[in-house]
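Hey,
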Amino acid sequence: MSDLFDISRIEGGKLHFDIEVFELKELLIDVIETFHHNITTHSIVLEDQSRNTSIEADKQRIEQVLINLISNAIKYSPKANKVFVKLEDSEEVLSIKILDKGMGLTVDQQRQIFTRFYRAENKSGISGLGLGLYLTKEIIDRHSGSIAVNSTFGKGSEFIVTLPKRRKTNH
């Protein structure tokens, strides 16, 4: 239900962001540890190739993005037992890649996956409102970042999030 409230706040221009500087790597490790304590079906493997993960963003909203993407990777890969998370950085951006060996998406599904209320047809009885990836994209967009998906139907998906380390000012 909180996703639904966040969607209405986004569309009304009232979703609040608390911008702070924090270490994305530390947040990612905390999120992964929480999953390890609560999920027994999958392990989450972190491949850290970063040097500097300091980022200026809304920590709670970025945590929401990470939780959504990792939980989707687990949910949509019921026959696999691992999800891979790769953290990389360059001088100006941080990149998080979340890879599963699950159901995958068709090309048409990949085009629509970030649309509000969209649910892929191959969902196999998996519950949801079709809001999570829409909300994820909106949060990333409001951080001047990007999200993309690479997927092969029947083999898995990779979601790639790119976020600027520092917010651009209009001054």
